[in-house]
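Appendix B, record 7
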Amino acid sequence: MYLTPQHILIAGATGLTGEHLLDRLLSEPTVARVLAPTRRPLAAHPHLENPVGDLQALLPKLSGQVDTAFCCLGSTIKQAGSQEAFRAVDHDLVLAFARRARELGARHLVVISALGANPNASVFYNRVKGETEEALKAMDWPQLTIARPSLLLGARHEFRLGERLAAPLLRWLPGKYRGIDACALARALWRLALEEEDGVRVIESADLRRLGR
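Structure tokens (predicted):
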């Protein structure tokens, strides 16, 4: 059985995956409205509502019906500037977004986590991602889909030398460790949003690549 999301809320619409997902949402005839709060203005579209500003400040002001929410928020410790700043985005802001989406009526949350997310991980990045997943599960969503992609491949706005050098190799790694194109991840997220399956689903990178073909 399939749901047909009509009113969508998306966070991170200017990010690597979020941009691809937003394009897809706005091209879907079944989507009546996309609510996409961002720091910088997006190109106008008849079905797009784009509050501009700091997401934390915008969350209480968001209004209207929401059926499905997509959380594409994510940073790196280097990008954030410190472990505390990273946690503020990848844990605190993700949870704040999820709570507001639920208040607006969303029944399905699709969230991008990361390969290796584990609340008991020794690596800080993976531990924060795992703690975020556990906190989202505790919210008791009717439907929660957690996507765990490996390293995302695609043209970013900011230059990341390590990712640029590693990308050719990551395309040939086995299974869930192989890099995934952001456009393929966006396709997978949309397909997952259309499926009605109550409870929590965790989708690893190999399955995300398959769904995104």
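Remarks on this record: The domain at 7-211 is CATH 3.40.50.720 (Rossmann fold). The helical segments are 16-27, 55-58, 77-80, 83-103, 124-138, 161-170, 182-194, 205-211.
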